[in-house]
Amino acid sequence: MFARSPVLNQSGPPEFFFRVLTTVPEFQALLFLLFLLLYLMILCGNTAIIWVVCTHSSLRTPMYFFLCNLAFLEICYTTVVVPLMLSNIWGAPKPIPLAGCGAQMFFFVTLGSTDCFLLAIMAYDRYVAICHPLHYTLIMTQKLCAQMVACAVGLALVLSLQLTSLIFTLPFCGHRREINHFLCDVPPVLRLACADIRVHQAVLYVVGILVLTVPFLLICVSYVFIASAILRIRSAEGRRRAFSTCSSHLTVVLLQYGCCSLVYLRPRSSSSVDEDRQIALVYTFVTPLLNPLIYTLRNKDVKGALRNAVLHKAASGAS
């Protein structure tokens, strides 16, 4: 499926080329339409979540505040990758300058890291709601929620800036500037360096632990307390209702952390470029697409708000 791009001119300033997905025009058109459709669905689904949360006062709670931020992150996250990817599917391979590749990597890592931190914050929100329901409004104040989101963004920016600046101080071999990927992700760009990258791989591993392992452990600890609290609820209906508020978040966590861990925390000896690229398709397209669907289909409040909004729009249009 994946084809090699033509011989590249290596003179001039450093440039990168992405490995073309296919050279068959029919397949190019099919992939372009498929990825474009998925991208539009991601934009529409996450925009709908933001619109519903912002326009319905009943959803102005910490949980939906975090969900709104998550939806916004997914829109930005895919927008950093997909338009450039689509332009390279359609037509001849287009070069991306060194600065452009660094910028895409910086924003991709920043947004992906913020996404992981936000999922951990959402787990803490569910912990407070279920384990300390009487103190929920006192603990999860609007100020605290905004501060936690700001801290997540700030930490992600610092880690991404350090990692990206470290990688782009490396010399890149002139005859190997073809990135075997559809974006400037860290592992495939590191493979193009013509220098010792053991320190850089170690830094990537440390960043991966800080972004993936630590938040995931915090999520696990939160859910241990949540499960203990749910099991103490006497009524089966009460247990079911409490668990339903967490099931959507758990599904998203497993998708996000599972895919990212396979790319960034696997030993280099046990990973391949093709596998990394296929897994990247999952967290670039599937996870951002499923997030609004999971939260909408499994959340009565969001479904009710969407239904009311559609009915109100239809009624106003008819009149």
From TrEMBL:
Keywords, alphabetical: Cell membrane, G-protein coupled receptor, Membrane, Olfaction, Receptor, Sensory transduction, Transducer, Transmembrane, Transmembrane helix
PROSITE patterns tied to this protein: G_PROTEIN_RECEP_F1_1 (PS00237), G_PROTEIN_RECEP_F1_2 (PS50262)
Transmembrane segments: 29-52, 64-86, 106-124, 144-168, 202-231, 243-265, 277-297
GO molecular function, one term: olfactory receptor activity
Cellular component terms per the entry's GO annotation: plasma membrane
Residues of the G-protein coupled receptors family 1 profile domain: 45-295
CDD domains tied to this protein: 7tmA_OR10A-like (cd15225)
Pfam families according to UniProt: 7tm_4 (PF13853)
Subcellular localization: Cell membrane
Record's bilayer topology term: Multi-pass membrane protein
Function: Putative odorant or sperm cell receptor.
Similarity comment: Belongs to the G-protein coupled receptor 1 family.
Protein name (Swiss-Prot/TrEMBL): Olfactory receptor
Annotated source species: Canis lupus dingo
